[in-house]
Amino acid sequence: MDLLTVEHVTKQYAGHKALDDVSLSIPKGSVYGLLGPNGAGKTTLIRIINRITAPDSGRVLMAGREIAPDDVYRIGYLPEERGLYKKMKVGEQALFFARLKGLPRREAVARLKRWFEKFGIEGWWDKKVEELSKGMAQKVQFIVTVLHEPELLIFDEPFSGFDPINANLLKEEIMALRDKGSTIIFSTHNMSSVEEICDHITLIDKSHNILSGNVDEIRRRHGSNIFELHFRGEEAALRRAIEGRCEILEGSESESVYRALKLHVADDGAVRTVIAAANEAVELRSFREIIPSMNDIFIRAVAGTL
Fold first, then answer.
1. Mind listing the pLDDT tens digit for each residue in 22-32?
2. Of 7, 41, 129, 229, whose Cβ has the fewest other Cβ atoms within 10 Å?
3. CATH tag, 224-290
């Protein structure tokens, strides 16, 4: 079941079309990557989902009906441009945002205390925001975003400004929120993060949706039938055995016991015969397909060579 559906959304500003007939569907309980180069239209789409701005045409549906003003209470949004008031105290400000999301004061304080303890920032409650580093302030804003336990969470470059340890902490919390039932839109340029945590993606480029789908399926679909073969034995014998069945792209220069060849097998039906022939000639240790990374696919898609 889809929690959020974007149908043929178009948005134009003076002389610039930010989104051009963009459609996508976000399954409930998934982490959905929203990808694209700078200026592609990602932020405009996020603002339309949040009702910060309206589309010129098209519509956004939440749980099967057109999104309404009250639905903002079902959404948590962490923008790339952080927005904390520097002169306010951390606890006072976090409580202010929690009340804006409809939480009673007592419940808000209790939840904030739990999150502050989880992130190890209990001592920040009475500090002013201007005293915090960028990463510290981002922790506070993350807490404020998720505090009211919304159905839909939107994170725009959430790991910006974090060291690897704190970035991993946030990843774990994002996955835990998904496992508890939240649906998450994750906008980023970090392709390794996409492979780690995203179930589905949409790639927007030049205002258009140019690629959508399950991450694993997309990676497999855009593979090039490239395989890596690890073996022990005489490489010349192996080359003779598989000659004519595949193209040898790259040999191993390793002097170790185990060596490797990179192969292109043009016909899927020939994979088994290549494996069988190799196994007769040498001691075959592994044979695996090299699946392109999301970074490779991103670059090829944007360059128009996918």
1. 999 999 999 99
2. 7
3. 3.30.70.1150
Domain ranges of the chain: 2-220, 224-290
Q: Is 155 helix (H, G, I), strand (E, B) or coil?
A: strand
How many Å apart are CA 79 and CA 156, to the nearest integer?
A: 5
pLDDT at 254: 56
pLDDT at 214: 94
CATH no. for 2-220: 3.40.50.300
Q: What are phi and psi of 40, to 5 degrees?
A: -75, -25
CA distances from 223 to 108, 127, 216, 266 (A): 48, 51, 11, 11
Which of 103, 88, 87, 7 is CA-nearest to residue 55? 7
Could you count the other beta carbons within 10 Å of the beta carbon of residue 104? 10
Tell me the Cα Rg of the chain.
Answer: 25
Output the CA angle 224-23-33, nearest 5 degrees: 55
- Return the SS3 of 303: helix
Which whole-number Å values give the CA distances from 250 to 126, 233, 239, 267, in the listed order? 61, 17, 11, 19
Asked whether the CA dihedral 228, 232, 235, 237 is positive or negative, the reply is negative
Distance CA 248, CA 211 (A): 31
Residues of the chain with pLDDT under 70: 82, 252-257
Question: Which helix H or strand E contains 83, and what residues bound it?
Answer: none
pLDDT tens-place string over residues 236-259? 999 999 999 999 998 765 555 678
